[in-house]
Amino acid sequence: MLNFIYYPVSAILWVWHKVFGFILGPDNGIAWALSVVFLVFTLRAVLYKPFVKQVRTTRQMQELQPQIKALQKKYSGDRQRQAVEMQKLQKEHGFNPIMGCLPVLAQAPVFIGLFHVLRSFNRTGTGMGQLGMSAEDNLNTPNYVFSATDVQSFLDARLFGAPISAAITTPVAQLQAYVTENVPELPSRLNIILVAAPLMIIASIATHFNSRASVARQSEAAAANPQSAIMNKLALYVFPLGVLVGGPFLPIAILLYWVSNNIWTYGQQHLVFRKIDAEEEAKKQEAITRRNDNAPKPGARPDPNKKKGSPAALKTAESADDDGDAPEVSLEKPQPKSSGSSGGSTSKPKQNRPQNNRGNSPKRNKRR
């Protein structure tokens, strides 16, 4: 049913086993453990860009919280209108909530696929997803892209004396599948505990510190939200405790997956957040520099030409364009003309009075 997940996961695991098996030997437990670890690293490398988008989406969501709350308050009685306005707000700001969930949604199928592929190396159980095979049939049956030879190599591999697909609670009947011609001893329960218990503790601590790093980067408004406060408590304490409680039921390889995934997440978070913080700081400095360049110096009048698009700047530009076409106007006062008959006396210039139609009226002509 989920073969479209199982085959790609087993193929990536097969490739890494060939790489480390060539160096350390195909039956080496460390080679199989490194194959699981680099399966995680391969997935997380593919999901690096979606993770960056997730961080940016989270930051953007925190910035839009005041507007979102305003819309919820404004359209509290109209859910349909509220949803429309929320979609409009998200579209205006290029906000996509799905990007915030994509990395988690992509990791879940891989976790399920790896869990199933690892369990399928030992199909002697009778529980859900098990086939109840005999140890001999299981040894000669391929496992997705792994051949029967690879299955035998996996069953022979030991990580400090423990099979990596065995769990602390694995029944003795299923442990019989790990008894082969190359390794005739039954795996010790003590060896499984000594390998699984430290991995459980490391996975729990790593989960707690990753959650703490995420909570520390939340804004004060987001942290004050009651729903966010509940989720923060779950992430900080309940989820790490769940790893300790559920660890005995998980195969050692799944615990390796959990530890390596948390280690990658911890390093990637610090790298991505540092990069985004540096970008935002650079944008702030650029905005401050631009504002200082446009601001007038102390004691000087502001220059309207520096503010593009302002009315003063447009008026200045228009007047500058009109100066090239306007005729020159002399600002000197005209000298009064001298009259020869008055013996050098100056006469007042005649003033041009506006003419009207009073002299041309019919009544005035009749009197004349």
Task: Give the tags.
368 residues, disordered C terminus, mainly alpha, elongated, 15 helices
Can you give a write-up of this model?
The protein has 368 residues and is an all-alpha fold. It contains 15 helices and no strands. It is elongated, with a radius of gyration of 41 Å. It starts with a helix and ends with a helix.
Q: SSE string, helix = H, strand = E?
A: HHHHHHHHHHHHHHH
The tally of strands reads 0
Share of helix, binned: 55-70%
- What overall geometry do the principal axes of the alpha carbons give? elongated
Low-confidence stretches: 325-331, 337-350, 363-368
Distance between the termini: 121 Å
Largest sheet descriptor = none
Cα Rg: 41 Å
Rounded average pLDDT: 77
In DSSP terms, counting alpha (H) and pi (I) runs of 4 or more, how many helices? Answer: 15
- Range of strand content: under 5%
Class by helix and strand content? mainly alpha
Q: So what's the oligomer here?
A: single chain
Question: In short, what is this structure?
Answer:
The protein is mainly α.
Task: Please write out the topology.
Elements lengths: L2 H22 L4 H18 L1 H16 L1 H10 L4 H14 L9 H18 L15 H5 L8 H9 L15 H4 L13 H28 L3 H5 L1 H21 L5 H43 L16 H12 L39 H6 L1
Helix pairs in contact: 1-2, 1-6, 2-13, 3-13, 4-5, 10-12, 10-13
